[in-house]
Amino acid sequence: MSASKEQYLVEMTVYDPSLPGVRTLYYSTLGYTSSPGGTPANQYYAPRVLQPGNYQVDMFRPGRTSGKSQVGFGELRLINGDGLLDPLLDYGFDGRNIVFKKITALGAIVLLASCSMEQPEFTNDEITVRVKDPQMAFDAPVQSTKYAGNNALPFGIEGSADIKGKPKPLTYGTVYNVTPVLVNTSKLIYQVHTSTVSIPAAYDKGVKLAKGSDYADQAAMEAEAPTPGTYRVCPSLGCFRLGASPVGQITADAVEGSTAADRSAAQVARRIALRVISSGEISAADVTALDAANSAEVGIYIAEEGTVMAALDQVLGSVGAWYGFDADRVLRMQQLTAPSGTPEITLTENEYLTLERLASNDAGRGIPVRQVNLNYAKNYTVQTSDIAGSAQTARDYSHWEQATLDNSAQWHALAYGNGVFVSVSYGSLQGGVVTSPDGIYWYFREVPGWCLRGWSIAYGNGMFVVTSVNSDQILTSPDGIHWTVRTLPQVNSSSATIAFGAGVFVIVANDTSTAYTSPDGITWTQRAMPVSADWLDVVYANGTFVTIANGGIGVTSTDGGATWTQRTLPVATPWGGVVAGNGIFIATLFDGDTIATSTDGVTWTQRPIPGKVGTASAYGSGLFMLIGQYACYLSTDGVSWSTRNYPAWTWPDSASYGNGSFVTADSVGTSRYMISPGNERVQWIGAAYRTVSTADASVQTAHLLAPELNVDTLLIDPVAAQSEAARLLALHKVRRDTLQVTVTAQTLEYIDPGKVVRIVSPRYGYSSGKLFRVTGVSVDWALGRVTLTLWG
Known about the structure:
Layout: E1 7-16, E2 21-28, E3 32-33, E4 44-47, E5 49-58, E6 73-79, E7 97-103, E8 109-117, E9 121-122, E10 126-132, E11 170-178, E12 181-184, E13 189-191, E14 198-204, E15 207-208, E16 210-211, H1 218-223, E17 230-234, E18 239-242, E19 250-255, H2 265-273, H3 284-293, E20 299-302, H4 308-317, E21 321-325, E22 331-335, E23 345-347, E24 352-358, E25 371-376, E26 399-404, E27 411-417, E28 420-425, E29 433-436, E30 443-445, E31 454-460, E32 463-468, E33 473-477, E34 484-487, E35 496-501, E36 504-509, E37 512-518, E38 525-533, E39 535-541, E40 544-549, E41 553-557, E42 565-568, E43 575-581, E44 584-589, E45 592-598, E46 605-613, E47 617-620, E48 623-627, E49 631-635, E50 642-645, E51 652-658, E52 661-666, E53 670-675, H5 679-685, E54 690-695, H6 699-702, E55 708-712, H7 718-732, E56 738-744, E57 756-759, E58 770-780, E59 785-791
Parallel strand pairs: 2-4, 16-17, 23-57, 25-55
Antiparallel strand pairs: 1-2, 1-7, 3-4, 5-6, 5-58, 6-10, 7-8, 8-10, 9-10, 11-19, 11-20, 12-13, 13-18, 14-15, 14-19, 17-18, 21-22, 24-56, 25-54, 26-53, 27-28, 28-29, 29-30, 31-32, 32-33, 33-34, 35-36, 36-37, 37-38, 39-40, 40-41, 41-42, 43-44, 44-45, 45-46, 47-48, 48-49, 49-50, 51-52, 52-53, ...
């Protein structure tokens, strides 16, 4: 049967003003009546289809594997030379559904596509109906709710005439330094979202304001002003109120979504799509699969006119995903990956009519990529001037912020490396590991096969290593997210402490005379210590490892932990820990106001400090920090100390320095973040993004002009950004081909984008077969032709 003689069915949902109401029109190419058991039953399809339609859909713009999504399109032509369809002029077609079906040679009815229609065009002989992908629904405003501008000051949050008719802002996920909308000029009320969010930070000219208690509702927010210099939040309204008139630009950080899992690209995209379609029109399986592929947090702030499509492009593009509707009118979203697995169909010279290679419009026009530069942690308000003087002064570490973690976890150990803080638990939350880019936002990381309590952690040579309690097992991870359980040669100890220096990890086992060394955290060598002791801590500086124990015992190693020499501290007990930096070792007495300092770990000098400290200490930015109850102490040399406030009575278990900040963790499940009001903040707000890069220099061995791929994302976590950059480099550093292959409709009626096909051809090295992913489909049912755009 030729293509023109095949039976195609068309079902068009329209508005009929004569009813008035919605009805379905049924047409076909040859005339058809459905069976009594069909759906619908005994329905006549009038033979009015002149051209059974053509349709084209692509993931992205032609020749691209990323960027803006593409809306599919096509048309249907109906016979109307007799004028019997003229009454359709008064019908409403636009925005409604059209379904294309085909009856196979065996009598089966196959769904080909479900699309949206535009209003038809009429000539004397024909009616032309243009059809579009259901994705056209996303070309609608993402925010249809506008400010009324009718505040009866001093009350109201609908704004005044200056913002009347402007869209209300939307926040999805975690966003930084956004410009909120001033919705009440009398009460100094600002808005970042139209429903529930948290607003953990607000800034005036770049300086962070202190946060007061939350408001329960709008009435409370309007009735009670915050203390001057502070702000308070009404979470349910996405609003906050200032306690005093601002001196400059007001910005804020905001978090939407109850948990980190709710703030993934898949979940955020789902919530945005639900603004215009129903949950039943979204593939739940795809949302789950995309979360499994990349569950990292993203954040988008929308304060201007924009479409749902533009928002989805940004959100899903952040994890390299595409989206579109399948033949069943279900929204699909999938990460674009190299084609693999079992193909939907294999096409050889016997099946395809034509096969052509196409030029790529990606970076480098098809040349393999040598480097990926990925932007993350978007700053929504770039500030390079009009910044408060206090935001530019030298660091004094005078202010702490607090983030609450799992209160049962007892976060004992803390380290910084690879742009991330990592903390491990030795409490009831066994196997607990959390990471944070800044000490404020923490993310729980699952460690398969690990149910022990962590004790100590160190970072070096691109690896985190964690020791455990009452076990010979340790953990290693390059990024704090993906962990591997490993085993030491032999440990008969209740705990073990670890440090890194001179390219070597050193573990000292408590209550033993045993140490272990490793260059990579994977292969370990057992070493002998000169004495068995209650080893408390181990550090490295000046080419020397130093560890101390109660009883005034210390030992040192100058050969990477291979051999050790016993030393004596000036006081017997009770030592709390040791910290090193700037060529100085400092040992602290637990619950004592005395320390001991040394430049070599051999000769120690006892010194006083202003107050009592515990076990938590750290070095960074040229400063030692020792932490006690309600106070911490800073020094550049271990001799002269200054006092700062520490807002807790509990002893923190550990401390670390990274990214311009000191961070502590303690056994009541809190992280405290000491803010530096210095250059880091100025630099941060002066740039639109942070950037991670990953490269493979070997690509240029063959391709001297190998390009760099630059990608903007809405990711917020540096570790997640680095992981996505590495994935993109692996995807694009090898040869990728784009093909256009045409087959008959008998060979392939239709295939959804994202599916995998196998091409066998004597050309281009495909003789053994090569897998490709479908990135575009063009169908002409009148000619019986299907043209595929393939990438692989």
